[in-house]
């Protein structure tokens, strides 16, 4: 894991530090507040996407999901809480070990 795009939430607080402790080298955060966010493309170097479901509108979530699918990027829908994010990271690590 090296680069992560986080969509939603006004600020991430200490979540950024905790994600870096799990091995993410680069974290790009888009708050999703502006209408033109749906026009933004997902950078090619991004390895995965987290969408904060409690801080994003349905249209932007739908657009990001489609763009991730088109670029074959893994996308995870999480709440803006470390426990929710940590569960997804643990699940990813378990799946990685199984393969």
Structure description:
The protein contains three helices and four strands. With 99 residues, the chain is α/β, with parallel strands linked by helices. The protein has one domain: Rossmann fold. The chain has a four-stranded parallel β-sheet, sandwiched between helices. β3, α2 and β4 form a beta-alpha-beta unit. It is globular, with a radius of gyration of 13 Å. It starts with a strand and ends with a helix.
Sequence-ordered SSE layout with sheet pairings:
Elements: E1 3-7, H1 15-21, E2 26-30, E3 48-52, H2 58-70, E4 75-78, H3 82-98
Compact summary:
This protein is α/β, with parallel strands linked by helices and 99 residues long. It is built from 3 helices and 4 strands, in the order E-H-E-E-H-E-H.
